[in-house]
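Following up on my earlier message about nicotinamide-adenine-dinucleotide. Here are the inputs again, as you asked, copied directly from the submission form:
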Amino acid sequence: MTIHDLTVISAVDGSALPKKPFTGRHLIDGQWRDSLDGATFVRRSPAHGTLVSVSAKGGSEDVEAAVAAARRRFDDGRWPFSSGKKRASLLTRVADLIDRERERIALVETLESGKPISQARAEIEGAADLWRYAAALARTVHGDSHNSLGQDILGFVLKEPVGVVSIITPWNFPFLIVSQKLPFALAAGCTAVIKPSELTPSTTVILGELLLEAGLPDGVVNIVLGYGEPVGAGLTTHADVDMVSFTGSTGVGKSIAASAAATLKKVSLELGGKNPQVVFPDADLDSAIDAIVFGVYFNAGECCNSGSRIIVHKDIAQEVVERVVALSKKVPFGDPLHPETRVGAIISPEHCRKIDGYVKSAASGGAAIHLGGGELAVPGLSGQFYQPTVVSDVTGDMAIAREEVFGPVLSVLTFDTPDEALGLANASSYGLSAGVWSENVHTCLEFARKVKAGTVWTNTWMDGFAELPFGGFRESGQGRELGRYGLEEFLEVKTLQMRLGQSRELWLNSR
Ligand code: NAD
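Thanks, got it. Here's what our run produced:
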């Protein structure tokens, strides 16, 4: 069905909607528990408005109990000193269980987050792949040895698990992001306490069920459901937590880094992005325009990697905008439960208003709205959606050009020279990812080497592999996930020096 030229998919019949809400409880020391004070919170589907889940609402006592369990299990040594082979086979079992439960996890993910069901299925499949990749890494943990320090001494560099890790995750890719962290932490031999977002708690609870079924010893992974205060804050300040692995907004990331400083915890942060794609006149425009449309609308733009600003050469800017607008109208927005839907609901009404605020403020500052610019009514659905939106005549000083809009909104800026393009690309406090489109490899390479971003894509956008590290420069974060670096994050280095025989020269010669 087409409304105002857009492709909008109306509500499908509600038979897939669960009859009963999902019940989420904390997982502490291998036991499912309600909050000590019995408190709960609910989540409604952002697309359908129906009740999806009722979850235990954690308090400080729940944090205390979960951290104590993770600490005990780490300190008794059985998990950190278990063999890589044992940890690998457990992680592989979890991957198999995730595959088995893919449909169930994908449905709950879609209902809590508003993302399309086809995308949710792909994410759960990708998550299982990460568990398998981490399983392979578990058998590769090793350090170095030095045998050139002298005849009577050997030196070893040991890699040891950091200890108890707090894992705090956002709502936009709940199952995928916990799977970018937890299996790597377990492969290293760490124990963990996880806090999923209060907006999408339930698939992390399902993961907890699968961990128990796979045979993970009690207390190695604990889950506390609830809000940033007091659960998230408690997990980042607790003296018995050795490391915080956080994905979320830059604002909360900075506050976590500050509060974790009191106990000098290791902190790994995956934060926001304002990711540019630069399009040179010699680019393959068919491919670039498809990638621009994918980059901005994927996950309704609620994506750290959203290609939310394009920087286009002036000679082709008009053509690019026209073609992006034309293709945008063909992207199916609507009911996330329909298999053809590519863009679903916005996570909350407040967030929808925030997106709209950025667009309205750009328009009042002189930007041109070529498409969209308002909420989208989807027939039969009571949730919140936002229209595919293309905004040009954006200048570098506008909030829409600098801040994360986190919605299906594309800002178009233009350039004359490669230096100008690079300057615009780097004119952001973020540095997560960037892209460049040109058929000239020298143009691509020069841009790739000078742009300040943790990931650079040339003539593609948002490809991802378990083998390749991911993370941000500048205010997009610190530390890396995935690849071998993703394992190293959870390892501490210990130096061991062994003197052989009685070769040590005495400091005071009193023998
Ligand atoms: P958020 O920062 O609001 O919340 C993230 C998590 O932190 C939630 O679980 C939340 O409950 C918790 N939290 C809130 N306050 C806290 C506190 N004081 N102490 C500890 N924990 C606290 O982020 P969000 O809105 O859930 O997610 C969107 C943000 O995440 C965007 O900025 C996006 O760019 C970023 N993100 C980054 C990546 C990446 O890999 N770089 C991936 C996905 C999302």
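One observation from looking it over: The longest strand covers residues 153-161. Hope that helps, and feel free to reply on this thread.
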